[in-house]
Amino acid sequence: MAEIFRGRTALVTGASAGIGAAMARDLARRGADLVLVARRAERLEALAAECRALGVRAEPVPADLADPAAREALAARIGTVDLLVNNAGFGAYGALDGTDWARAERLLAVNVVALTHLTRLLTPAMAARGFGRVLHVASVVGFLPVPLFATYAASKAYVVSLGIALDAELAPRGVRVTVLCPGATATEFFDVARGEGDAPSAGPVGAMSAEAVARIGLDAMARGRPMVVAGGTNAAMVFALRFAPRALTARLAMRTLRRR
After folding, report:
1. What secondary structure letter does DSSP report for 227?
2. Closest among 92, 94, 97, 61 to 79, alpha carbons compared
C-alpha cells in the first residue's frame, strides 16, 4: 500500500501536532513529498526537518486556514498536489449560549469552510490528471449529537456527509475521498477544546495513539475506501448508534459530559 504514495506530493493541514503530525511522518515513511500547513511555524519547521531526514521533500507553510485569502494563496503557491489530507480542526467545550461567538465562528471556518474550500481548490486538477486521494478527518461524534460539544459534533457530521458524497462524485474521474472517523485520541484536543492552551495532553483513558489513527486513515486512503472508523470499539459504537434514538443519545451524552 505504500507504493501508491511513493513519489506523490501530499498537502497535510493541521500538521503541527496530533494526528496531522503523525500522518505527515507516516506519509514520509511511505515516500510522499510533503507540504505541511498549520499556524505554528516553529513546530512545522521541526516536523519538516524530521520528514526530510526520511529522504523526502517537506515544505512548511505557516497559514491560518480560517482566512479565505490564506487558502487561496496556499493553493496558488503549491499548484497541484496528488494527496490532500484535510486534518485541521479543533473543538470548543461548553454550551453554545455561553460560548464566545468569535471562537464558535472560527471553529466553523476551520472545520467546515476551510476543508470544503481546499477540496474545491485542489480536486479539479486531480480529476483532470485522473488520479487523486483526499482524506477528511472527521470523528465518531459526527454520528451523534453531543451537548457541550454541539458545534464541533455538528461540524464533523458535515464532514462525514460531504466526504462520502464527494467520493461518489469524483471516483469516476480517478479521485477517491476517504473519511476517517477517530474516537478519543491521545492529542492536545481536549486541552484546546476547554480553552487551556496548547500544552500536549495524554487524552482520556483508553485513547488511541495518534500514530495508530494515522496509519488506519492512510491505509484506508490508499485503498480508496469511502469511510473508516478507527478502532474496533469505536466501529461497534458507530454501528450501534444506528439503532439508538438521537434524542436519547444526546441526553446520555449530556449526563456524561456534565460529570467531567
Report:
1. E
2. 61
**Across residues 239-253, what is the average pLDDT?**
79
> Contact at 8 Å (CB) between 16 and 38?
yes
Contact 25, 2 (CB under 8 A): no
Query: For the chain, what's the residue count?
Result: 260
Residues known to be catalytic? 152
What pLDDT is recorded for position 242? 85
As a whole number of angstroms, the distance between CA 131 and CA 141 comes to: 30
Alpha carbons 112 and 192: distance in angstroms, whole number: 18
Identity (one letter) of the amino acid at 202? A
Residue in the block written with cell 493553493: 75
Which range of residues forms the domain containing residue 117? Answer: 2-258
Q: What is the pLDDT of residues 103-121, one digit of tens each?
A: 999 999 999 999 999 999 9
The CATH number that applies at residue 23 is 3.40.50.720
Indicate the SS3 state at residue 57. coil
How many structural domains comprise the chain? 1
